[in-house]
Amino acid sequence: MTFPFFQKSKKPRSSLEIVTLAIEPGLLCLRCLSPQRLRFELEYALERGSTDNSFLFTTTDSDQKTAVLVHPPGGIYADVFMQALSESLPPNTLLSYVVVGHVNPNRVELLRQLVERYPSIKLVSSNPGAKLLNELWSQRKPVGPGQKKNTSSSLPPLPSIEVVRHEQKLPLCGDYQLRLLPAPTPRWPGGLLAFEERLGMLMSDKLFAAHICTNDWAQANSTSTEEERRHFYDSLMAPMATQVETIIDRLETLDIRTIAPGHGPAIETSWRSLLSNYRRWGEGHYQASLKVLLLFASAYGNTAAIADALARGVNRTGVRVESQNCEFTSPDELLNAIRQADAYLIGSPTLGGHAPTPIVSALGTLLAEGNRNNKVGVFGSYGWSGEALDLLERKLRDGGFTFGFEPIKVKFTPDSMMVKTLEETGTLFARDLIKLHSRKQRRASGGLSESRSDPAILALGRVVGSLSVLTARKGHGDAALSSAMIASWVSQASFSPPGITVAVAKDRAVEDLLHCGDFFALNLLAEGREKKLMKQFLQPFSAGADRFQGLELDFSENAQPILQDSIAWLEGCVKHRMECGDHWLIYAEVRNGKVIDPDGVTAVHHRKTGANY
């Protein structure tokens, strides 16, 4: 495909704009741009902005001009999108269909505005999507403390909905023809993909997306956006890897030439590589020996955001998460999932002082069929009260379940600090599960560990590294996030530019602060004086705890924490990340540094085995 031009709209807001990309005669991509992080949800944690891509087909059949809009954006883009859509529709053109790729309150907000301006449109959605549209259309999003409800304007009536229950075609005038494919997942039960057959263009909505702000229609190569797409997968797709794999199996039969996701640039020449990556990223989840069942319902997306962060924390340990949206899970599916799980997480919003009916039903099944030896965790969001969470906690405690953490109650939307705390909570929950499982295995094998006696593993333990404390800080003011860890797998990697590599376990809390472009400091410890700092950073931290409490800190040029008791420090900027089994290998260019104690000797970590630190 070639794209001869794009037009940029004026910006009603300082941070949001839209570009119109001409793909083919009669086909435009309306790309909404946000250079800043939209929300504090986990999927935006890289802070590289985002895009929201919609597709407008305009066709002519004799005197009748019609248009079909595929995957409209959320309400946050309403001002710039509605203006661009109006300018993009040829004169006397009827907007006849709007294909809705997924349904949530933010998207419903924009659909209402479309209906007000174009009252004759028909919505096209999957069967679960139609159910959600009927539930959400007349609801207004809860407002925070001190805010007034918007009751001044009446809502437009819900237009007619063409329900896609199975794969079907939506014929357009001219050469275009859309094939619509339902793609339900727990996170987006109303998922609906659109495939234009002549161009071979798959409009994949949430699948294969990446949150990155760019005017470019397509990515430069297969690696240029891999980090962003992997982060999106780990944040949202990993807990439903089985369902995603099923969808990919179906997509492999299509004559795809371009994938155009709902967020980020399109994928043209390397789309097969991306499908392979999705399969590879999901392999670890299939092979995991332990599984946490995540049950949730989410009215406005807040409880789902909490679930995403907890699931990401669990997944970082290698424990598999199986996500189930209780509103769209059959009783048999729920029963099988409960019986096969090693631990349970259940989350609910509070609506009108109650838990949604599907959550109450799932709770009953869990109480009847759940294993009391499996730990449980309760979470959810609320507005003015939290009765649903109190109900879950009381029933599960009375039912004899042991809690892996205290119930998590988030008022409205989690902020960046809470998202980080939720991730760490999920990690600690999974680590406890792994420890329990390991103890059972050791008892079963008589206490022997085969890997510890392997000659190669013993030899690997003779590889030594400098003892240091890796510190990282990201953000500004009260919203800044910071973390630290003891690091000994450290090495100089290059002379020009000066560079270092650090291996970071996937379940370390600091790992999320070490993406490309992030800064960190490496504080080298002095031999004979290392015990104090090691004791500080090797202690078990509760979720969200301040790793630096009680320490006097200096700060590097890029605001990274420097420990005064270190022998020397280096400040690095992350340039590359490579996945290496259960670790990430971080390569960073050294930007700043200083020797604090010229006479000191660097502490070295000696190990007896390569099976652990």
Notes on the structure:
The chain is built from 13 helices and 29 strands. With 613 residues, the protein is α/β, with parallel strands linked by helices. It has three domains: 262 residues, Metallo-beta-lactamase, Chain A, CATH 3.60.15.10; 152 residues, 3-Layer(aba) Sandwich (Rossmann fold), CATH 3.40.50.360; 145 residues, Pnp Oxidase, Chain A (Roll), CATH 2.30.110.10. An eight-stranded mixed β-sheet has the order 1-2-3-4-5-6-7-8. The protein has a seven-stranded antiparallel β-sheet with strand order 21-20-24-27-28-23-22. Strand 20 and strand 21 form a beta hairpin. Helix 5 packs antiparallel against helix 6 and helix 8 crosses helix 9. The longest helix has 29 residues. The radius of gyration is 26 Å and the shape is globular. The relative contact order is 0.08. The N terminus is likely disordered.
Query: Which assembly state applies to the chains in this document?
Result: single chain
Could you give the count of β-strands?
A: 29
CATH superfamily name of the largest domain? Ribonuclease Z/Hydroxyacylglutathione hydrolase-like
Number of DSSP helices? 13
Distance between the termini: 51 Å
User: Which strand order does the major sheet show?
Assistant: 1-2-3-4-5-6-7-8
The CATH topology of the largest domain corresponds to: Metallo-beta-lactamase, Chain A
Total tally of structural domains? 3
* CATH architect. name of the largest domain: 4-Layer Sandwich
Largest sheet: 8 strands, mixed
Percent of residues in beta strands: 25-35%
